[in-house]
Write a structure and sequence with these properties.
about 10% strand; alpha/beta; GMP Synthetase, Chain A, domain 3; Rossmann fold; globular; Helicase, Ruva Protein, domain 3; 4 domains; single chain
Length: about 450
């Protein structure tokens, strides 16, 4: 396998485990730049992407690479590329379940969405109204989206605020609005932006003192689409910048489209001035799909990929996976992958066996409060000291451990972690996470401590 095939296999595995928006945001324009003496160097497009992969996806990347070869011991990240010949990857000597070469599987079947995202708009052209399945759980949001396309910036639908749980199609719907708007108005400007990337651009602009240029670039759009706005609500500075951007676009009748995992009133740290503006437009919720809609979604996905399964297999998937569309699609990917590996049709019994491995997989649940309590007990400090602004030396390490675990176990955002532990800035949480991650590579006793803390987290009531 050359390094391009290796990275395709890694992306194939990662893409099944993270959200569609995150995959496109952080893994677009990445590649393996170099492999030498067990060290893999991953090329990323910019410094913010480098920091994000290191902080959030490093373990998953290492795990996927080591699944392909035993001699990989370290993964590094660089901005740009290194021009060096690529050594042949030494495969594992023994594997009970051989990993398929994903590059040999037709891409229209596996649909790994190595998408050609429009660099100007940030939109994925695959997200269209034609591929969006409408049911009772999302018909209001769909109707509102259609109204926005017909009259962008019009009264009653500006802003359009779509909310609902994870994996229910919010990203698809809001991008479909942008794609349809550009289709009808080719000369106009649309900008789709996940809030995490927007925050990254603001941080970079503040650092490089180019904030005015960034503001002008955003204010020039006709339709602004922000995904997962709840993350912006974690910091006052981000809210302030978005407030001014919102006002600038709204006053010129430019359309603003926002998605969130909860309605404005339920975002606890959202400022009142932003909440009132969000609620001043159209709010539309997206719920969980019913069985008929899940069947329709599966049929559409199979038709798009030119794959055929029996009705029993399709119904088995739809009845087994009832949580959200993302899980439904992930289950379908597993069935397609297994069918491609075996070169044989999958029957309902085999599909049920495959899906039971997912549904019955043990899951551990916790909360940030349990993490703080466990850390405090292990290091014999008070919870009050951890969550307050205490700077005593004996508090520093436990607080950093708590920050690391909240990120590693719960994938909490850095602003949220900083807010819950000492009212700290998000940069403090980032520093703590990186420090503990680095210390783990040189201090074996720290790994033992973390193991003990994790046991407290998941065994204590």
């Amino acid at each position: 396998m050359n390094r391009e095939d290796i990275w395709k296999s890694v992306l194939a595995e990662l893409e099944l485990t993270i959200s569609r928006a995150s995959f496109i945001t952080w893994f677009r324009e990445t590649s393996i730049a170099d492999m030498n003496d067990g060290v893999v160097t991953v090329s990323v497009p910019n410094g913010f992407a480098k920091s994000w992969l290191q902080d959030k996806y490093h373990k998953s990347i290492v795990r996927a690479l080591r699944g392909l070869a035993t001699d990989i011991r370290e993964v590094q990240y660089v901005v740009g590329a290194i021009d060096r010949p690529m050594p042949v990857l030494r495969p594992k000597p023994v594997r009970f379940f051989p990993r398929p070469d994903v590059s040999d599987i037709p891409q229209d079947r596996l649909e790994l969405r190595d998408t050609v995202v429009d660099p100007e708009s940030g939109l994925n052209p695959r997200y269209t109204f034609e591929h969006f399945i409408v049911g009772s759980f999302n018909e209001l949001a769909h109707a509102a989206a259609q109204a926005v396309v017909q009259n962008p910036g019009g009264a009653g639908y500006n802003p359009l605020f779509i909310y609902g749980g994870v994996g229910l199609g919010k990203t698809h719907l809001i991008q479909a609005i942008g794609n349809e708007f550009l289709k009808q108005n080719p000369g106009r400007r649309v900008r789709y932006m996940p809030s995490e990337r927007y925050m990254g651009e603001v941080v970079e602009a503040l650092t490089s003192k180019t904030m005015n240029d960034l503001k002008e670039r955003y204010r020039a759009v006709d339709v602004l689409i922000i995904d997962d706005i709840q993350f912006i609500a974690r910091t006052e500075k981000m809210q302030e910048e978005f407030f001014h951007l919102f006002n600038s676009l709204y006053e010129r009748n430019k359309q603003i489209i926002i998605s969130s995992d909860k309605p404005p009133a339920a975002i606890p740290t959202l400022e009142n001035r932003l909440r009132s503006r969000f609620e001043g437009g159209q709010l539309a919720d997206v719920g969980s799909p019913d069985i008929e809609t899940r069947l329709a979604i599966l049929q559409t996905k199979l038709k798009t990929r030119n794959v055929a399964f029996s009705e029993d297999v399709i119904r088995c998937i739809a009845e087994t996976i009832s949580t959200n569309i993302r899980d439904l699609e992930g289950a379908l990917n597993r069935i397609i992958l297994r069918s491609s590996m075996s070169n044989a049709p999958i029957d309902a019994e085999e599909a049920k066996r495959i899906l039971n491995q997912v549904v019955s997989a043990p899951r551990r649940f916790t909360s940030y409060k349990k993490i703080i309590r466990a850390v405090a007990e292990f290091y014999d400090v008070s919870e009050k000291d951890l969550i307050n602004r205490s700077r005593r030396k004996e508090i520093v390490k436990p607080r950093q451990i708590a920050m690391y675990l909240m990120r590693d176990e719960l994938k909490c955002s850095f602003p949220f972690i900083g807010e819950k532990l000492g009212k700290k800035d998000h940069t403090t949480a980032i520093h703590a996470f990186k420090k503990i991650m680095n210390d783990l590579t040189v201090d074996p006793t720290l790994e033992v401590e973390l193991k003990s803390v994790r046991e407290k987290i998941y065994t204590n009531p």
